[in-house]
Amino acid sequence: MQHASEVLASGLGTKHPLYAAVLGDLGLVHHSAREYPKAEQRLQDAIAIVTETQGENHPDLARYLHRLAAVYDEAGDYGAAEPLYRRSLDISDRALADMLTVGSERNKAAVLANLEDPIPMLLSFQRRAGDRLPAARALAFEAVARRKGRVLDQVHDWGQSLRENADSGIRNRLAQREALLECQASLTIALGYRDLKPAVAGTCTLPGGPLRAPAP
């Protein structure tokens, strides 16, 4: 792989996205070998190239930021890992939102099938670092809440399409189901945040009266 990087550097230059991809893969190799300084350098170089050539919101940048965060995480530098994990999540979440607003349902399913899911890593991170770094706990929860929100958005879009082509009985049942999903999401967010941000309150209204998340 080192030879491949040298060939690409001589043929395409050191500012090409393909060269950044090879550096990113070399970073993984060094990480696996626990050669953390070498992994850090390779990934920092890849991040610099992508930032310069593709911009600060490109999905490739999210990938390399996540890998660099994982290097710091495994090395025990949780304070350095957390902002990189967060920035990677922000970029990938915006990219996911953009991809899910256009194209056919088949294309959207293909995007989701090939998407690198950051949540397992972030949950592991908060288990390791959460006691010493509350921001790690908040980040893991926010990642779960964001992905749940994306699912709710898609359910709403599908429901809207069904409502436009359904009779009144089906429309009423869809409305009840959406209200239930929104209620669950609101209460889940409130319960997740109550230890971190007690002022957050989750409420929802369903037949039978309003529900409210219990106080911590």
Characterization of the model:
It is a single chain. This protein is mostly helical and 216 residues long. Helix content is 75%, strand content 4%. The protein contains nine helices and two strands; from the N terminus they run αααααααααββ. It has a two-stranded antiparallel sheet. The longest helix is centred in the C-terminal third of the chain and has 30 residues, at 134-163.
Question: Keyphrases for this structure?
Answer:
216 residues, mainly alpha, two-stranded antiparallel ribbon, 9 helices, flat, disordered C terminus
How are the SSEs placed, and which strands pair?
Layout: H1 2-12, H2 17-32, H3 36-54, H4 59-75, H5 78-99, H6 105-113, H7 119-129, H8 134-163, H9 168-193, E1 203-206, E2 209-212
Helix pairs in contact: 1-2, 2-3, 2-4, 3-4, 4-5, 5-8, 7-8, 8-9
Sheet with the most strands: spatial strand order: 1-2
Tell me the number of strands. Answer: 2
Give the low-pLDDT segments. Answer: 196-202, 208-216
Mean pLDDT: 78
- State the helical fraction: over 70%
- Our measurement of the CA-to-CA distance between the termini, rounded to an integer number of angstroms, reads 53 Å
- Cα gyration radius (Å): 21 Å
Q: Determine the strand fraction and express it as a percent band.
A: under 5%
Q: How are helices and strands ordered from N to C?
A: HHHHHHHHHEE
Globally, the shape reads flat
Structural class: mainly alpha
Helices, by number, come to 9
What about the largest sheet? 2 strands, antiparallel
